[in-house]
Amino acid sequence: MAKAKSSEPGVIAPGQTQKFIYVGNMIPAQLIVTNTDQKNQASYRLSGGETGGWTLFGVLAPASSVSLLLQWPSGRGQVNNSSAKADLYVHGNGFRPQ
């Protein structure tokens, strides 16, 4: 797996947060979170909804991905990369970085 550049859409550098909008019509929607680092694990926090919405926490082994099926009714959410060293690449049908 090639290391993504943090300037690419959907790539989130360590300690950063990226807002996303959902413009698709699939329910549930598939969102894929990938750890692009070959040596370090990555942790993330995915949240959506209005105040008091939902939050999902996850940890990824080096060079691994997870596929999440979500219902994102507000159409807006964010992914926080709480890793110290690993970039995350977040993408899915209908999900766009804001």
Describe this structure as you would to a colleague.
There is one protein chain. With 98 residues, the protein is mainly beta. The chain has no helices and 9 strands. Strands 5-4-7-2-9 form a 5-stranded antiparallel β-sheet, with no helix packed on it. It is globular. The model has no long low-confidence stretch (mean pLDDT 87).
Low-pLDDT runs: none
Count of helical segments?
0
Following the backbone from N to C, one meets helices and strands in this order, namely EEEEEEEEE
- Portion in beta strands: over 45%
The strand line-up of the biggest sheet is 5-4-7-2-9
User: What does the average pLDDT come to?
Assistant: 87
What shape does the CA trace take?
Answer: globular
Head-to-tail CA distance between termini: 25 Å
Radius of gyration, whole Å: 13 Å
Question: What kind of sheet is the major sheet?
Answer: 5 strands, antiparallel
User: How many beta-strand runs?
Assistant: 9
> Which secondary-structure class do the elements indicate?
mainly beta
Which range best describes the helical content: under 10%, 10-25%, 25-40%, 40-55%, 55-70% or over 70%?
A: under 10%
